Amino acid sequence: MNMENKPKKINTTRFGEIEIDKNLLFEFVSPIIGYNDKKCFALVDYRPDSPFKWLQSTEDMDLAFPVTLCSYFNIDYQFELSDEDAKILDIKDANEILALNIVTIPQINPQGATINLLAPIIINTTNNNAMQVILKDTKFPVRHPLFDKEEDKNADKGAK
After folding, report:
1. What is the pLDDT of residue 47?
2. How far apart are CA 34 and CA 28, in angstroms?
3. DSSP string computed for 19-30
């Protein structure tokens, strides 16, 4: 067996000891905002049936961000990556890009979850370089509601 392809074992607070496929390990060439000293993260699929994954630090067992794809929630999300950011990530083709968004899920009200559309995590799937990008000239919010509030409003009207 080629040792390069052997899964990496990491310890985590949330999931205990887990094995990570080397293809799911990412090096942040520019850090996640507020976490300047953390460079290596793994994408953890804790529950295969969930639209959420975890971006788990391999350097800090306590640090993990819930992430998702906007398409899981039918969010119209298109943006242009700057030439500078594409160069930093060494992206040569749009097909190399994986865009994940960090989700905030309040413990007391999971239905109040929001998704950060302003600062996606961009991964080059060819070389596994990653960075958090702050989009410029956009109206995307930092806290976009994940779940449709219209359903709640309609339910309230029916209850009155």
Report:
1. 86
2. 13
3. EE-GGGEEEEEE
Cβ atoms of residues 10 and 18 within 8 Å: yes
Show the tokens assigned to 96: 């190399």
**Which pLDDT score is estimated for 5?**
66
Side-chain half-sphere of 8: how many Cα atoms within 13 Å? 19
Residue 75 in tokens = 């969010």
What is the spatial distance between Cα 21 and Cα 52, in angstroms, rounded to a whole number? 18
- Residue linked to tokens 């520019």: 30
C-alpha Rg value of the chain to the nearest Å = 17
CATH topology of domain 3-153: BH3618-like (2.30.290)
10-residue stretch averages of pLDDT, the chain, 160 residues long: 68 92 94 94 90 95 96 93 95 94 94 96 97 93 84 41
* Residue boundaries of the structural domains of the chain: 3-153
Specify the 3-state DSSP secondary structure of 153.
helix
Q: What backbone torsions phi and psi does residue 144 show, to the nearest 5 degrees?
A: -90, 125
Q: Tell the burial category of 123 from Cβ atoms under 10 Å away from its Cβ (0-12, 13-18, 19+).
A: buried
Here the tokens at position 134 are 């702050």
